[in-house]
Design brief:
The complex is a heterodimer. Helix content of chain A is 76%, strand content 0%. By secondary structure, chain A is an all-alpha fold. In chain B, helix 2 runs antiparallel to helix 3. Classes of the chains: A mainly alpha, B mainly alpha. Chains A and B meet through helix 1, helix 2, helix 3, helix 4 and helix 5 of A and helix 1, helix 2 and helix 3 of B. Chain A: InterPro entries: NAD(P)H-Q_Oxidoreduct_6, NADH_UbQ/plastoQ_OxRdtase_su6, Nuo/plastoQ_OxRdtase_6_NuoJ.
Chain lengths: 176, 101
């Protein structure tokens, strides 16, 4: 959907601030159950992010799979393994944490200085020029379905085999 | 441009996830930070698919594949963590040396 400019800007700023605060909460909160709920907040905000960029199917799949399956599984695992070790899990600031934060901020700033230097408009112009101008009467979801059943048919079957193998592996690893 | 701001957010989320993945002492928290990294990759894929490839939407298909692989990874990882917790009564990363002896 094509929102007007100021509404889109306010939406991106609001969702981005919530997303960065939630990500910091995942890392820095001491109790793992709080960080699991913070991860859920981050995943919901990411799925709301996909809606202004015309990707409704990925937004619905993110909301169903990540929030509905993965996050619930993580919360179950945290509650299942909630022993006495979490209560005295005090956060020591060691020298490795300092080195790691230095490295991560250097990666962050190098990527942030790389992004405006890239000429995105040239790439947009070259990709727009050789695209076939066709009438987009079919929606995005139908387009994804057509691609999954023609071009990406072999990866689609492979992903189903991977899901089956991981299901059997998780059951045999957890029940012994 | 709005699209670069989304890329900045994705970079911030990626570096937060990387820091948490290296410094966390709890295995479940390390898995959560791995989910953060995969989600930042997904944001990049969906944004580039909307900007550059709005006819064919291949970035959306790759992000669906990444979501499926991340779901399988979370299931396997949490099964391994629960198995280690049953043997060692602990989920600390530095105490999981079962392959050591």
């Amino acid at each position: 959907m094509d929102l007007p400019g100021p509404i889109h800007y306010i939406l991106v700023a609001l969702l981005g601030s919530v997303l960065i605060l939630g990500g910091l909460g995942v890392v820095l909160l001491t109790n793992p159950i709080y960080s699991a709920f913070s991860l859920g907040l981050v995943l919901v905000c990411i799925s709301l992010f996909y809606i202004p960029s015309n990707s409704f199917f990925v937004a619905a799949a993110q909301l169903l799979i990540y929030v509905g399956a993965v996050n619930v599984l993580i919360i179950f695992a945290v509650m299942f393994m909630n022993g006495s070790e979490y209560s005295n899990d005090s956060y020591f600031w060691t020298i490795g944490d300092g080195v790691t934060s230095l490295i991560c901020t250097s990666i962050l700033f190098s990527l942030i200085t790389t992004i405006p230097d890239t000429s995105w408009y040239g790439i947009i112009w070259t990709t727009r020029s050789n695209q076939i101008i066709e009438q987009d009467l079919i929606s995005n979801v139908q387009q994804i379905g057509i691609h999954l059943s023609t071009d990406f048919y072999l990866p689609f079957e492979l992903i189903s085999i991977i899901l089956l193998v991981s299901l059997i592996g998780a059951i045999t690893m957890a029940r012994q | 441009m709005m699209f670069e701001h989304v890329l900045f957010l994705s970079v911030c989320l990626f570096s937060i996830g990387l820091y948490g993945l290296i410094t966390s002492r709890n295995m479940v928290r390390a898995l959560m930070c791995l989910e953060l990294i995969l989600n930042s990759v997904n944001i990049n894929l969906v944004t580039f698919s909307d900007i550059f490839d709005s006819r064919q939407l291949k970035g959306n298909i790759f992000s669906i594949f990444i979501i499926a692989v991340a779901a399988a990874e979370a299931a396997i990882g949490l099964a391994i963590v629960s198995s280690i917790h049953r043997n060692r009564k602990s989920t600390r990363i530095n105490q999981s040396n079962l392959l050591n002896n």
